[in-house]
């Protein structure tokens, strides 16, 4: 059965873990007890979100997925490459006291909408023709679905990441211990939470895209050109 594939979504949750400095606070008064240290260690980090809604670019470069779609029997009018990815940068804090030491995530910055959307229109379609405009508008609707995903994911991170990381973003360690293994564990905890959030909003956008990419909808859209 032949159809018209108008979109390919490439999903990649990318992690960029940047150690931007270790802060070691001084305790002017009585040093905290072991219990107090655990409470300090369990504090939620500061969360910052850099949300990027990028304008799509129309490209003449044929997407890598084109050949797979052709082999599957699709008649391709256009494709939108939408990479639903994010980056996370970490800043660390070391609490050193007589009761022990704590390595914690002081802050995490999450960047969404990292990669610019790209739209490819089959070059056999004459530019500025009715078919070209319908195809472009269809792909732009996929970009709108993608942008809605970015906003929803960004808002979820702003509102909920700190509370989800409470008691999960710090670790009591022995003084002089190599912190690399502890950092890996704490970063992975954070990334697991981010991946789960990203997947949920990615699924919503995918559902919208699938509702658009049906034979019935294609016929309805292209009927105006007949």
TrEMBL record:
Taxonomic superkingdom: Bacteria
UniProt keyword list: Signal
Record's signal peptide: 1-28
Keyword field contains Signal: yes
Protein name: Secreted protein
Lineage start: Bacteria, Pseudomonadati, Pseudomonadota, Alphaproteobacteria, Rhodobacterales
